[in-house]
Design goal:
This protein is an alpha+beta fold. It has helices at about 5-15, 25-45, 60-65, 70-80, 250-265; strands at about 20-25, 85, 90-95, 100-105, 115, 120-125, 135, 150, 165, 175, 180-185, 190-195, 205-210, 215-220, 225-230, 240. The termini are far apart.
Length: about 280
């Protein structure tokens, strides 16, 4: 018995490596979450800029609330099973008329998580469409293994290394537009990208990278996780606490520690780093 998704939706994800759109939050709830985010940006700008956009769920209860939302986790459970952990979150924010873009890449290329079968969730807190730079995906590419990536460090490329997957046929791409409150799911091996925001509003996405089974191992360093559902029978990871209030000093220190470890993993093998 499936909890959120239909058999057809699960089969579609298995075949294509992505599923969208799925409504998890109402538009009113998405508006509330966006308001909380923008209030937090105004009050704590240093906590939501640059590298601090990584793992901000450790510092803000409303972001923690998204990552542990039971309806969202029902869908994740339908895709990967009842025992679920996640290791990181990222706020992907493109300002109005922002030239920033995300090149074709695979999430799992640099994460060090093996086997590579987790699911990344992307939650829209504003309109995400082809004008504002919604995500695009290459269907079925998750079944073709990890591709070679070139690290470009391009100025407007908002990925860590500006990494670009090789051999991508962009003519096969499919767009994944989302309304506020809708969610997309994509396999961490699927090839995807997004274009600049040419709209007059911010494009705000909150990505959980990535939900996976506790039996997965980290091969490049140390990763903290939070248990999202079920139980961890393996103990491969340290567990990060959930925040009980916003910007608690101990939680901020934990976020900084997690971000340093995560940076060491994502930039493994290179001496060149950026502030995200």
């Amino acid at each position: 018995m499936h909890k959120k998704l239909t058999r057809e939706q699960i089969d579609s994800y298995d075949r294509d490596g992505y599923l969208a759109p799925i409504t998890v939050f109402s538009e009113a709830e998405a508006a509330r979450l966006r308001k909380l985010l923008e209030e937090a940006e105004a009050k704590h700008p240093e906590a939501l800029a640059g590298a601090a956009r990584n793992n901000a769920h450790c510092n803000f209860t409303f972001l923690d609330e998204i990552a542990h939302n039971p309806v969202l986790l029902d869908a994740v459970e339908d895709l990967i099973g009842p025992d679920v952990v996640f290791c990181a979150t990222v706020l992907f924010i493109k300002e109005a008329n922002d030239p920033g873009f995300v090149s074709w890449h695979q999430d799992g290329k640099y994460m060090g998580l093996e086997p590579n079968n987790g699911v990344t969730v992307w939650v829209a807190l504003s309109e995400s469409n082809e004008v504002s730079g919604c995500m695009q995906v290459i269907p079925g590419s998750h079944k073709q293994g990890m591709r070679d990536h070139n690290d470009t460090y391009a100025d407007k490329n908002i990925l860590t290394r500006g990494q670009e997957a090789q051999g991508v046929d962009a003519s096969t791409a499919v767009s994944m537009p989302l309304k506020p409150g809708q969610v997309s799911f994509h396999h961490q091996s699927v090839v995807h990208s997004s274009q600049p925001n040419q709209s007059n509003d911010r494009r705000i996405g909150f990505a959980i990278q990535t939900y996976f089974s506790p039996q997965v191992k980290q091969t490049k360093g140390t990763t903290f996780v939070q248990l999202a559902r079920g139980e961890d029978k393996y103990g491969h990871f340290e567990t990060a606490p959930r925040p009980r209030e916003d910007m608690n000093s101990k939680d901020v220190a934990m976020r900084d520690h997690m971000n340093q470890l995560w940076s060491d993993i994502l930039y493994h093998g290179t001496d060149k780093r950026r502030d995200y």
